[in-house]
Amino acid sequence: MSDAAFPARILYPQARITAIGSYVPERRLTNADLERIVDTSDRWIIERTGIKERRICAPDEFTSDLCIAAVQNMKDRFQPDLSDVDLVLVSTSTPDFAFPSTAALVQAHFAIPHAGTMDLSAACAGFVNGLLTAFGMVTAGFHRKIIVIGADALSKMTDYTDRSTCILFGDGAGAVLVERTDEPRPQPVVCVQGSDGDGGIHLYQTHTTGSMRGRPVTANGKIIQNGREVYKFAVQTIPRGVAAMLSAAGLAPADVDWFLPHSANLRIIESVCEKTGIPLNRTLHTIERYGNTSAATIPLAMDEGVRQGRFKAGDAMLLFGFGGGLVHTGMLMRWAGLGQ
Ligand code: UT7
To answer: Looking at residue 1, what is its pLDDT?
Structure first.
């Protein structure tokens, strides 16, 4: 039975991912390091989140540097021709500047001559929204080749005196190339997308304004989170979104070859698997080693799957992003294989 609160949308895409790359900074921040900074313990962090360590940018390393390194990694491994890329789209909540966009900095680094550039703000659901946007733009025929990047340097806005948030976040980036295909019988992409703007107060960052929809906010430029509320939102929303997508695609949970949920907390992932019936061993995430890297968690997990040779053409792959907004975006697609 369809769930009216989670309308699934279907696209028959003339687009596929042809290359991927990723990057995380060198510096590791372990649970033992955090024990020296705030009143916490390795045991608490692992039991409550599954996180063992995260990667943190150097002081002079920013989101655009992460993006550039991820695209360079994609270039080194797949040698794509980037000279005819028509759009660079960076999903991030931590742009180097309000403007120019992070995407424009990436375009300049790679000297891509005729690309449009834009940043997309959808917090931890950013990469899935970017990928959906790229699939839509290419299928509509506006573009033939789009670089989509999910990148965040949350350490730049993490309050390292707040033990309830500073143990969670890390930095990283993943990039994919989305290209036009002329597949005569494209496999459907199913998506669900929704927001609860009233829940924005549970997870935000601001330097400036005094209120959000009439409710006072802390304007210290750091991440403010009501973890319990966001946790509840995640474990209630994702299973319904997943069920709606599977129903629209005519698939059972056992038909999902790979589940790539946003890596915010291992307990959320385990709970979602239990509620949806998707086996935990079909799930790819990077929570243990990288923590919550926001828009980067899903492409980092995807690239890890690629490096490990896990995916074969035709595999059903389910991505699910959720976070500040509050927002959620899920995407169910068939892996088409990389390369030309
Ligand atoms: O990507 C964006 C989406 N974000 C998320 O998905 C985050 C979702 N939320 C969570 O992952 C969890 O809520 C957290 C990991 C943030 C917190 O876990 P929790 O099980 O919800 O803990 P809690 O906030 O209910 O706190 C339980 C206790 C509290 O102590 P009392 O009041 O019971 O005495 C906290 O003060 O744990 C305490 N606590 C800590 N203790 C040791 C909170 N943080 C820590 C800490 N170390 N780092």
So the answer is: 66
- Check pocket membership of 40 for ligand 1, CB cut-off 6 A: yes
Instruction: Give the Cα separation of 241 and 330 in Å (integer).
Output: 7
In the β-sheet with 145-153, what is the strand arrangement from edge to edge?
15-23, 171-180, 145-153, 87-91, 116-120
Find out whether the beta carbon of 235 lies less than 6 Å from any atom of ligand 1: no
Tokens 């834009």: give the residue. Answer: 118
Domains and CATH numbers, the chain: 15-180 (3.40.47.10), 187-334 (3.40.47.10)
Cβ(265) – ligand 1 distance below 6 Å: yes
What are the catalytic residues?
Answer: 124, 262, 292
227 CA → ligand 1 middle, Å = 6
The structure tokens 């989670």 sit at 6
For the entire predicted model, the pTM comes to: 0.97
pLDDT digits (tens, 9 = 90+) for 82-114: 999 999 999 999 999 999 999 999 999 999 999
The single residue listed with the structure tokens 């360079």 is 72
Whose Cα sits closest to atom 28 in ligand 1? 164
